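Q: How would the structure tokens look for this protein?
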Amino acid sequence: MSSLALAVRDSSTMLRRNLLHARRYPSLTLNLLLTPIMLLLLFVYVFGDVMSAGMGGGADRSAYIAYLVPGLLLMTVGSTTIGTAVSVSNDMTEGIIARFRTMAIHRGSVLVGHVVGSVLQSVVSVVLVGAVGVAIGFRSVDATALEWLAAFGLLTMFALALTWIAVGMGMVSPNAEAASNNAMPLIFLPLISSAFVPVDAMPGWFRPIAEYQPFTPAIETLRGLLLGTEIGVNGWLAPGWCLALTLLGYFWSKAAFDRDPK
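A: Here is the predicted structure in token form.
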């Protein structure tokens, strides 16, 4: 069997393993999925009219739903990948990695299985949160098929980037609790982005924090694709952030995996 065929076979096996774990122990995924759903319902039905009026749209909850949903979709990606950090940390601390290293399997397949499994879970979570958004009134009637495809591609790229970062966090964490804590910025960063209010509405001293981080360009690009708002330079910044984070997470994870005692 060629090296490529061996890598694909072993990666597929590890992917099935991680998907079985997610199916048998769904509580972590469900808890992380509930966070963006609860925030969506909270901001729409409790703060929706006030937030829309404060943004100059009048007391129109539907306008704020349209503004809010793209940001919550990106937040869903961030929250889902926390489970990846916990899963990787468990593998590293419970000895299964040491067992895999004694077997004739492709070394990279362990990490690839985690990454692909997490990206698939992120996509499913985004679809579920998007369905909730549609159920409560979100509409994207002006987006073309190409724009929907680009939006899906952006979400997938962002999921891949954050997953590699989460894998690195899991690799260097001493236990599952530390991995969960280390990955919390993946939930907190959307809270200080343009997900809930425009950056222009923030205080001047706080605005750079929201502008110069990966979530805001991705949110604005996704919002532009789905709602027809201006994308501008964010159309380049969003994939740029995805590429940079993917490379950072990949090399970080690989170095941590190779450094672990054999």
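The chain is about 75% helix and 0% strand.

Residues 61-93 form the longest helix (33 residues).

Upvote if useful.
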